[in-house]
Amino acid sequence: MKEITIKPIGVIHTPFVEINNMPIQPLAAEGVKGVIELDESFVDGLKDLNGFSHITLIYQFHKVDGYKLQVVPFMDTEPHGIFATKAPKRPNAIGISTVKLMSIKNNLIEIEQIDVLDGTPLIDIKPFYPRYDNREDVQIGWLEKNKNLSVEKLRSDERFK
Amino acid sequence: MKEITIKPIGVIHTPFVEINNMPIQPLAAEGVKGVIELDESFVDGLKDLNGFSHITLIYQFHKVDGYKLQVVPFMDTEPHGIFATKAPKRPNAIGISTVKLMSIKNNLIEIEQIDVLDGTPLIDIKPFYPRYDNREDVQIGWLEKNKNLSVEKLRSDERFK
Questions:
Q1: Looking at the domain assignment, is residue A159 inside a domain?
Q2: Which of A36, A149, A154, B49 is most buried as measured by Cβ atoms within 10 A of its Cβ?
Q3: Counting beta carbons within 10 angstroms of the beta carbon of residue A108, is it exposed (0 to 12), middle (13 to 18) or buried (19 or more)?
Q4: CA of A14, closest CA in chain B: separation in Å?
Q5: In terms of CA atoms, which chain A residue is nearest residue B132?
Q6: DSSP B52
């Protein structure tokens, strides 16, 4: 299939400089502040974004090298198919995080609840709209048995480096 | 910034062969069936995915040419910044849809509630997990005034071709 070329639209600055000991999801990154530095050429694309409290970021897991088809995710002790997990070591190392939008000043976007490495290349920003993006009555497969795990305290290690 | 090269992992087959008259969101595609044809080399990555009722697909808007920084989205009659909309004519033409997972047979994944064009290149599959992916207490900016719009009946036109 034809390759797709992506040109990052900006970079995400966060307090996380190492791949271990990070929050594994936005839910586990309460209060963690970051700044998106958008390429100045895209500033006009931010019009009216400031009315949204949450935005979904698409970005590259830029420190991940290669991929595995089965992994033991942070949320379990057994291996699962990579597509049944959100682990970063995927065939296309693309991540999604919905974070809190705090402020926009020209090309700088302050965010909170961010769970990515400092210097992460940003691919896209989309507004979060619960009516379209939330789902109820959902089956969650292998996560069912781990759903009471205290993810807020769970931190990453180096397994997906 | 450094370019990112994406190699699609498969293709999404749907009933939609034209960019107009399509559902504009999965919510508007109730009962619409599609099939993901995954590259056979990735089948081992599907282990345990079948326990999930919903999966999030990342894909390319492959029929979109170029981008606009401000657009009049299907949900409004006024222009907004492209990053304050989910319109496809974006700097990186990447889409996200959370769909229903119906069955998996080897490399063929049957899905429902799919809102993309036939032949869409698939970039990634992630399991949908409400605890991480849903958000409550959300402000929705310009969408607030249109939130009672009957999106189930709204269809696309050719404005983002």
A1: no
A2: A36
A3: middle
A4: 18
A5: A27
A6: B
What is the distance between the alpha carbons of residues A24 and A21, in angstroms, rounded to a whole number?
A: 9
Question: Does any domain span residue B157?
Answer: no
In tens digits, chain A (161 residues) has pLDDT values of 899 999 999 999 999 999 888 999 998 899 999 999 999 999 999 999 999 999 999 999 999 999 999 999 998 999 999 999 999 999 999 999 999 999 999 999 999 999 999 999 999 999 999 999 999 999 999 999 988 887 877 889 888 88
HEC string of chain A? CCCEEECCCEEEECCCCCCCCCECCHHHCCCCEEEEEECHHHHHHHCCHHHECEEEEEEECCCCCCCCCEECCCCCCCCEEHHHCCCCCCCCCEEEEEEEEEEEECCEEEEECCCCCCCEEEEEEEECCHHHHCCCCCCEHHHHHHCCCCCCCCECCCCCC
Could you list the residue range(s) of the whole structural domain that residue B18 is in?
Answer: 12-146
Cα B103–B46–B4 angle (5° rounding)? 120
Contact (Cβ atoms closer than 8 angstroms) between residue B132 and residue A154: no
A5 min Cα distance to partner chain B (Å)? 5
Q: Are A91 and B6 in contact, with CB atoms under 8 Å apart?
A: no
- What CATH number should be reported for the domain holding residue A129? 2.40.30.70
Of B5, B82, B128, the CB nearest to A45: B82
Position B132 in a domain: yes
Kindly state whether residue A153 falls inside one of the protein's structural domains: no
CB-based contact A83 B45, cutoff 8 Å: yes
Reported residue count of chain A is 161
List the single residue in A5, A51, A81 with the smallest CB-CB distance to B49: A81
Assembly ipTM = 0.96
List of residues 6+ apart from A48 with CB closer than 8 A: B80, B81, B84, B141, B142
At B73, list the tokens.
């989205």
Mutate to test the interface with A, among B12, B27, B65, B132 (most CBs of A within 10 A): B132
